[in-house]
TrEMBL record:
Keyword Oxidoreductase: yes
Protein name, as recorded: methylmalonate-semialdehyde dehydrogenase (CoA acylating)
EC identifiers of the protein: 1.2.1.27
Organism of derivation: Halomonas nitroreducens
Gene3D superfamilies registered for this protein in UniProt: Aldehyde Dehydrogenase, Chain A, domain 1 (3.40.605.10), Aldehyde Dehydrogenase, Chain A, domain 2 (3.40.309.10)
Domain of life: Bacteria
UniProt entry keywords in alphabetical sequence: NAD, Oxidoreductase
A molecular function (GO) term: methylmalonate-semialdehyde dehydrogenase (acylating, NAD) activity
Gene Ontology BP terms: L-valine catabolic process; thymine catabolic process
Enzyme class, spelled out: oxidoreductase
InterPro entries linked to this entry: Ald_DH/histidinol_DH, Ald_DH_C, Ald_DH_CS_CYS, Ald_DH_N, Aldehyde_DH_dom, MeMal-semiAld_DH
PROSITE patterns named among the record's database cross-references: ALDEHYDE_DEHYDR_CYS
Keyword Transcription regulation attributed: no
Length: 496
């Protein structure tokens, strides 16, 4: 059995003082172990990043971008191996892992544009003979801390752009499925990153706290659950670091009475149950406006869900795989129990689902719960499993109020045929990413990704234009040359 270590200064370093099991959620078996880096190991990674910084900062942006071009090619070349690692440790179905990787590669493509994106601004003659310009300089050593649910993609939201901007990086992936992030970082190195520019430390709270407290780390990008995001943001900010911390979600879809219900059902099925609902953009609440729409939605959804196939990640016939751990399986089922106890109607029950041959896998079947009310635990908290709640609202205003009152504001969507209703919704709703008849409004790589309210702590979103701002600091230079200097009166030959 392999023990996964760290990548520091271009070499694999093991720190096997403490280790943790990595599971294959499809079978429930232990797939390997990860060593959990202690303070000294993390400090060695920071030191490597700091040592690599001066030369990397001075490397022309076009040369940094050329590494990204090669990196993209290597990611495409090794896609099957990467998706295999993602599937084995995360449990997502192979086509879903491919989708994840391609979304990650798009961020590498965006980073290839660094020379264009870093051009800055220039003003001539801001005063007599005075010119001013603003340039975007890198920060130094930047850290990234990432969640389990997109083990290949979320690290690629961060370091390609950070590195293309001239920073050096220490990545701390999720300890639950760390192999793909380490493998991908080695590809980045093969693409031409000098040793120390990108380092990976595997670990838990001890590693994270070391990154948060070390003065050499200038900025922290975090993606994970809201309680940890809030902790990261508070501690990093208190230590004077720039921080962006993306948190959890409870994404609602409003289903208006005029919506095309077949379209709603087919797109909600993918958005609620794909990747076992373990997506921060998963649609976990459908708010039907009017009982007629709610009844139609529940009936059609129930019929559609009868065709859903849950099973191991390597069988492409399956619609979704297991959840990440046994503890998480129990937690998701606990939310279904609580919904039942609090008076909701369990229309389709995914508890106790059996996958023949994989009885020890961490499976939860697709679950549909109707007549959920806003005071129920299943509504208030993020479940992060294949569970779709249906809330019944009397009007669009009431539906929008529910969304605005929820602590999370990551993504949302409206299903309607009415352009004016959709426009009003987009304008007023207190959520960062909004879809109109689009269930997962995940921005493409040249826009930025970020929620509102307690789904994001900090001022700048992830990737896209906001990443350029996050990973650089602006310097504005005002320049004046009072005399003509060498142009007039200068001696170009030895005086005779
Ligand atoms: P998590 O918060 O448990 O872990 C995220 C990272 O934080 C991991 O690297 C982990 O090692 C570290 N961590 C965990 N506990 C810590 C502690 N006490 N101190 C310091 N570091 C700690 O999240 P997860 O379960 O891996 O991921 C799922 C969560 O991430 C969900 O809430 C999901 O909504 C969210 N998420 C959000 C986005 C987004 O863009 N908003 C994207 C993906 C996932």
């Amino acid at each position: 059995m392999t023990t996964l270590g760290n990548l520091i200064n271009g070499t694999r370093v093991d720190d096997a003082v403490r280790t943790q099991d990595i599971f294959n959620p499809s079978t429930g078996e232990v797939a390997g172990q990860v060593s959990l880096a202690g303070k000294a190991t993390v400090e060695a990674a920071i030191a490597a990043a700091e040592a690599a910084y001066p030369a990397w900062r001075d490397t022309p942006p076009a040369k940094r971008a050329r590494v990204m071009y090669r990196f993209k090619a290597l990611l495409e070349q090794h896609a099957d191996e990467i998706c295999g690692l993602v599937g084995q440790e995360h449990g997502k179905i192979v086509h879903d892992a491919k989708g994840e990787l391609s979304r990650g590669i798009e961020n590498v493509e965006y980073a290839c544009g660094a020379p264009e994106l870093l051009k800055g601004e220039h003003s001539k003659n801001t005063g007599p003979g005075i010119d001013s310009w603003s340039e975007l300089q890198p920060l130094g050593v930047v850290a990234g801390i990432t969640p389990f649910n997109f083990p290949a993609m979320v690290p690629l939201w961060m370091y390609p752009m950070a590195i293309a901007c001239g920073n050096t990086f220490v990545l701390k992936p999720s300890e639950r499925d760390p192999s793909s992030a380490l493998f991908i970082a080695e590809l980045a190195q093969e693409a031409g990153l000098p040793a120390g520019v990108l380092n990976v430390v595997n670990g838990d709270k001890e590693a994270v706290d070391t990154l948060l407290d070390d003065d050499r780390v200038k900025a922290v990008s975090f993606v994970g659950s809201t309680p940890i995001a809030e902790y990261i943001y508070s501690r990093a900010s208190a230590n004077g670091k720039r921080c962006q911390a993306l948190g959890g979600a409870k994404n609602h879809a409003i289903v208006m009475p005029d919506a095309d219900m077949d379209n709603v059902v087919s797109s909600l099925t993918g958005a609620a149950f794909g990747s076992s609902g373990e997506r921060c953009m998963a649609l976990s609440v459908a708010v039907a406006v009017g009982d007629a729409a709610a009844d139609a939605l529940v009936d059609k959804m129930q019929a559609q869900m009868a065709t859903l196939k849950v099973g191991p990640h390597f069988d492409a016939e399956n619609d979704f795989g297991p959840v990440i751990t046994k503890a998480h399986q129990e937690k998701v089922c606990g939310y279904i129990d609580s919904a039942e106890a609090q008076g909701a109607e369990i229309v389709v029950d995914g508890r106790g689902v059996q996958v023949p041959g994989f009885e020890n896998g961490f499976y939860v079947g697709g679950t549909l719960i109707d007549r959920v009310t806003p005071d129920m635990t299943c509504y208030l908290e993020e479940i992060f499993g294949p569970v779709l709640l249906v809330v019944r609202a009397g009007s669009m205003e009431e539906a929008m109020r529910l969304i605005d009152d929820h602590e999370y504001g990551n993504g949302t969507c409206i299903y309607t045929r009415d352009g004016e209703a959709a426009r009003y919704f987009c304008d007023r709703i207190q959520v960062g990413m909004v879809g109109v008849n689009v269930p997962l409004p995940v921005p493409v790589s040249y826009h930025s990704f970020g929620g509102w309210k307690r789904s994001l702590f900090g001022d700048l979103s992830a990737y896209g234009p906001d990443a350029v701002r996050f990973y650089t600091k602006r310097k504005t230079v005002t320049q004046r040359w009072p005399s003509a200097g060498i142009r007039e009166g200068a001696q170009f030959s030895f005086p005779s």
